[in-house]
């Protein structure tokens, strides 16, 4: 029987998957979704709530999925003191500030994760530290930019080399989710499965035995599915690079689908375990 904390954990997991899906969809529709910041990773005690996805209008923050080009300069294309240049510089400052904030959130999630594998955690920590240094440096530099060339070069670095929202964000949250599922699968296989097998074997000949045996077989199959579909998901996600965009997007979409399928398989396994508990007590339903 699942405890209240397990039920809450399952609910958080569905919200994470949903936020990732929504974020990837929004990335192609003209708004920036703070995909990871809008979700709470399953299995991490550092997270306490699941806020709603935050969107930022395109006119306010240049989007990670847009081409690496600055705004049209219009009538004052040669001016570095005109209204258009000042507006473009302010826009870039706002975009950088949003990324500084997002990187801080991602760093908190990685540091607080209790399920990330050591290699994955080390990689993400190093990548986040590098991006934080670069984006922080740009945030300090851009207010002093006085030419369009400087502004465009800094924008290129922000987008081409440091796609905080489009690449780093799904990397962090999908890696955390994948490793969290892997840890849960290990516990199901090494701890719960032997316990269920013993309970079913001890019930041989009793009214609920056949029912318990059927659900035990389902439990084992479901856990195997979860293990199979999430194998190497984190590694594939972490192999992506900002410079590969937009090809990275398909990798993140497929990873998210695998995580959703694994979540469903684990939910089915939990159901089977619950029915086994009833069946070994004589329950003969389904």
Strand composition percent: under 5%
The helix-and-strand class reads mainly alpha
State the share of residues found in helices, binned by percent.
55-70%
Q: What is the H/E order?
A: HEEHHHHHHH
Number of strands: 2
**In whole angstroms, how far apart are the ends?**
15 Å
Strand ordering within the main sheet: 1-2
Ranges where pLDDT stays below 50 over 5 or more residues in a row are: 1-12, 14-19, 21-63
**Mean residue pLDDT:** 79
Largest sheet report: 2 strands, antiparallel
How many helices? The count is 8
Anisotropy-based shape: rod-shaped
Radius of gyration, in angstroms, nearest whole number: 24 Å
Provide a compact summary of the structure.
This protein is mainly alpha-helical. The chain is built from eight helices and two strands.
Q: Features of this protein?
A:
two-stranded antiparallel ribbon, 8 helices, mainly alpha, 286 residues, rod-shaped, disordered N terminus, 2 strands
Question: How do the helices and strands line up, and which of them pair or pack?
Answer:
Layout: H1 4-26, E1 31-33, E2 55-57, H2 83-112, H3 118-141, H4 148-161, H5 164-202, H6 209-230, H7 233-238, H8 247-279
Antiparallel strand pairs: 1-2
């Amino acid at each position: 029987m699942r405890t209240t904390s397990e039920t809450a954990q399952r609910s958080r997991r569905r919200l994470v998957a949903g936020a990732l899906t929504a974020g990837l969809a929004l990335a192609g529709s003209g708004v920036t979704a703070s995909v990871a910041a809008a979700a709470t990773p399953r299995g991490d005690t550092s997270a306490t709530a699941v806020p709603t996805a935050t969107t930022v209008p395109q006119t306010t923050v240049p989007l990670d999925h847009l081409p690496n080009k600055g705004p049209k300069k219009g009538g004052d294309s040669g001016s570095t003191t005109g209204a258009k240049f000042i507006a473009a510089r302010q826009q870039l400052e706002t975009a950088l500030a949003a990324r500084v904030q997002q990187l801080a959130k991602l760093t908190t999630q990685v540091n607080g994760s209790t399920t990330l594998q050591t290699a994955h955690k080390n990689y993400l920590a190093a990548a986040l530290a590098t991006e934080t240094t670069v984006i922080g440096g740009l945030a300090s530099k851009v207010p002093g930019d006085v030419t369009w060339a400087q502004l465009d070069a800094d924008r290129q670095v922000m987008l081409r080399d440091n796609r905080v929202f489009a690449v780093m964000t799904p990397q962090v949250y999908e890696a955390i989710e994948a490793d969290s599922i892997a840890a849960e699968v290990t516990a199901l296989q090494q701890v719960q499965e032997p316990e269920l097998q013993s309970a079913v074997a001890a019930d041989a000949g009793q009214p609920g035995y056949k029912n318990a045996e059927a659900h035990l077989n389902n439990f084992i199959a479901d856990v195997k599915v979860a293990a199979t579909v999430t194998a190497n998901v984190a590694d594939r996600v972490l192999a992506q690079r900002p410079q590969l965009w937009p090809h990275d997007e398909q990798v993140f979409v497929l990873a998210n689908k695998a995580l959703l399928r694994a979540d469903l398989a684990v939910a089915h396994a939990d159901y089977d375990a619950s029915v086994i508990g009833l069946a070994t007590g004589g329950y003969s339903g389904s």
